[in-house]
Amino acid sequence: MSAARSLDPWRWLGVPLVQVLIATVLFGIPLRIWGLQLPEPLFAMPVVFAWAVIRPSVLAPFGILIMGLFLDLFWGGAMGLWALCLLIAYGILLAGRHMMAGQSKVMLWVWYGMVAGIAQLSGYLFIMLDTKSMPSLTAVGWQYLATVVLFPFAYRLIDMFDDADVRFR
User: Fold this and answer.
1) Nearest one of 99, 111, 4 to 48, comparing CA atoms
2) Across-strand partners of 37?
3) Other C-beta atoms within 10 Å of 150: how many?
4) Nearest-5° Cα angle at 79, 66 to 97
């Protein structure tokens, strides 16, 4: 277990935000290995989860908005789709934050999986309403699985900053 770091906004908000943007661009490279393309996980989800668990913040929703709009621009989707889905997830996490406090890593992973599912289900429904057609359930399932596998990154971020501000414990 590592010692808690200081809770400077650039450390727990800015650095992870930039890392998400870089990871999204790197995984967006059209590289195929044996005919398979790299998965397109929702790299913003671990950061959204960690930000809600670490502490409530006025800056976090703006960071989530930036990440969501970047995802929409980068993937060519409807403007505001991922921003809305990620903000829905963040709101749910803030509402259930008191229930997550002190939970084990496995339970936090379950929470993460549920909220990631809600975010992706929201995106699926919004895309259906926008395009009036159903996106591929297989593609959404693979994206969900790839996103759930990213939980250790959320847990690492939580572990680094969770005890930095005792006012919210």
Assistant:
1) 111
2) 32
3) 20
4) 50
Q: Could you write out the DSSP letters of every residue in 30-84?
A: --EETTEEPP---THHHHHHHHHHH---SHHHHHHHHHHHHHHHHHT--TTHHHH
Q: Which of 118, 148, 123 is nearest to 135 (CA)?
A: 123
Burial 60-69 (b: 16+ CB within 10 A, else e): bbebbbebbb
**All residues at 6 or more sequence positions from 100 whose CB lies less than 8 Å from its CB, including other chains:** 53, 93, 107, 108, 111
HSE (side-chain half, CA atoms, 13 Å) at 82: 20
Tell me the pLDDT tens digit for each residue of 109-160.
Answer: 999 999 999 999 999 999 999 989 998 898 899 999 999 999 999 999 888 8
Contact 163, 9 (CB under 8 A): no
Identify the residue whose tokens are 């963040």: 90
Give the pLDDT confidence of 104-117 residue by residue, as tens digits.
Answer: 899 999 999 999 99
* Rg of the chain over all Cα atoms, to the nearest angstrom: 16
Domains detected in the chain: 9-163 (1.10.1760)
